[in-house]
Amino acid sequence: MTMTTSGFPRADSGFTLMELLIATVVGAFVLLVINGTYFGALRLNNHTQDRAEDDLVLQRALELVRHDLAGVMLPAAATATPPVGTFSGQFQDTPTNSPTQEFTATRVSPDLYTTTGEVNGWNQFSEVQVVAYFLASANDGSNTKSLVRAVTRNLLPVSTPTTDEQILLTGISTAEFDYYDGTQWDTTWDTTATATLPVAIRFSLSLAQGNATQPAPPIEVVVPVLAATKTTQQQAAQAAATGGT
To answer: CB of 74 within 8 A of CB of 128?
Structure first.
């Protein structure tokens, strides 16, 4: 140890003020990089979770539509005019006699007499129910639409049946049903005129996008109709006979 002229020991090594400033700047830069990386990963994780949840909601809605279409029942006889509240009705894109309560929303589907109702010990209704789909204005003030599933379970009521609304999807631009007659797709169908059900039904929707100049491609679900009327069976038999001659 060396002594200064004033009698106090002198340090041989230590940090200068410049070294402390440099270390502080480097530490702050490292913390800034860590902060950016962490919050970037957090935003990516939140975005991924939001997309996954949106996809699950979309898949659930499409599965419900597919299930309803797959369970479509045979319509009543073309000459019949059943009253509201029976287990059978006409397949019409614009129903003339419907148990479904009409809403301020826009109807996009026929009344689907389908066998998709849940049957359990707590539900007093059968599996037959009437399902219709509507497009309603969004509740968030935007110009988008919401896909509404209207379900009527009590088809043998002593009074006017009650229709329950279920909002399946939000943020929709358009939604529509089309009907395949075996050769082409039609936007309308009426069993009182055709006496047959369509061969297949297509449901398509478009999600609203922030950029209106680049609309999102439509999402489509095509479901074959397995139920066949007598007229359909006769037409199939005639077609087979014609093809065999």
So the answer is: no
Residue 55: φ, ψ to 5°: -65, -40
Residue 233, classified by CB atoms within 10 Å of its CB into exposed (0-12), middle (13-18) or buried (19+), is exposed
Q: Rounded to two decimals, what is the model's pTM?
A: 0.74
Query: What is the widest separation between alpha-carbon atoms in the chain?
Result: 127
| CA separation for the pair 236, 213 (Å, rounded) | 45
CA angle 142, 145, 149 (to 5 degrees): 145
**pLDDT (tens digit per residue) in 14-64:** 678 887 888 888 888 888 888 888 877 778 777 777 777 878 889 999 999
Whether the CA torsion 189, 191, 193, 195 is positive or negative: it is positive
